[in-house]
Amino acid sequence: MSLKVEMFIALVVGLSLCVQLEAQLQVGFYQTTCSLAEFVVRDEVIKAVNRDRGVAAGLLRMHFHDCFVRGCDGSVLIDSTPTNTAEKDSPANNPSLRGFEVIDNAKSRLENVCGGVVSCADILAFAARDSVQMTGGFGYAVPAGRRDGRISLASESLSNLPGPSFNVDQLTQAFSGKGFTQEEMVTLSGAHTIGRSHCTSFSNRLYTFNSTTSQDPSLDPNYATQLKLQCPQGSTDPSLVVQMNPSSPNIFDTGYYMDVLANRGLFTSDQALLTNPATANQVSLNVGNPFLWGQNFASAMVKMSQLGVLTGTAGEIRSNCRVIN
Ligand code: HEM
Ligand SMILES: *[C@@H]1O[C@H](CO)[C@@H](O)[C@H](O)[C@H]1NC(C)=O
């Protein structure tokens, strides 16, 4: 093959990859059609987060769970019906996902000012960005123009989302399946610097680690003692939650990476980042470089927010984020 032909092929492959990644989303998509869109979403996020700081974490996680399952199409927002169990009722989301009312409030205001224009998927993408920013992370421009999907299946959640008992290889695989590098996986995991977890997501590390050892030896014993007080053995009470990064659970700092380095990562999947030389190295690097991590996190969010999006005339603009039109 001649060099020219090879270069041409490389160019075409490169371009088509860009098209896939970037889709046709645009920063400022609602500038002319609903100029208040991002302002209204931000206003609702500010009100909600001022009422309950934890809602910021809820909205960030909700966007992640939307994007990894059927792309960022608002499918996580759809309610179950008598004939369909939706994503939000998968054990990956119920009872843990929170913040739905923030999206509903933004949506109803936007339907009043510019009906049928702003998608639920975009509202969620804006709200996740605002949540990162409100807790002290970097803001970033959100390319918009997503349309809402009409399908939401609980059965697709667990198979597309990484689980808290994953090891590094499983985490890396789950993210590479969505087009992310291992490095981006470690970067995005830093989201666990805010929010909370239900006891059931990690209680196996405290009581039933394996047949010979009850407590996960990779967990700092003092932290384990503290966690056991908050999460009594055998309790499945869904109101039992613990804060992640307990020293600053509402601040978007590098506390998550400090926790992991100190064997205080809450999930097996968090602590697992120390079991691989490359990911362990990145954990240490991020601890000392909050600015670099903050920038990398914002870039990875922009990338995540474009996963499998519907654009143009695909999908719909839901008038109620909980039900298809
Ligand atoms: C790396 C693989 C990941 C795993 C295994 C994982 C797993 C989990 C689990 C089990 C919880 C606790 C849910 C509960 O019991 O209440 C949680 C919470 C959370 N996750 Fe992840 N997660 C991962 C990646 C991410 C990513 C990429 C983001 C966002 C960019 C994210 C954001 C959050 C947030 C903010 C919370 C707190 C939610 C709240 O306070 O309501 N996670 N995650
Ligand atoms: C249980 O975990 C401990 C500590 O990691 C390990 O030494 C032991 O081999 C494990 N036992 C089984 C049966 O897997």
TL;DR?
With 325 residues, this protein is mainly alpha-helical. It has 14 helices and two strands; from the N terminus they run ααααααααβααβαααα. The chain starts with a helix and ends in a 21-residue tail after the last helix.
- Note poorly predicted spans: 11-22
What radius of gyration results from the CA coordinates?
Answer: 20 Å
Count of beta strands: 2
Q: Widest sheet: strand order?
A: 1-2
Helix/strand-derived category reads mainly alpha
Multimeric organization: single chain
N-end to C-end Cα span? 52 Å
Supply the number of structural domains: 2
CA-based shape: globular
Helix content: 40-55%
CATH topology assignment of the largest domain? Peroxidase, domain 1
CATH class of the largest domain: Mainly Alpha
Largest sheet: 2 strands, antiparallel
Question: Can you write the helix and strand succession as a string?
Answer: HHHHHHHHEHHEHHHH
CATH architecture of the largest domain: Orthogonal Bundle
Strand content: under 5%
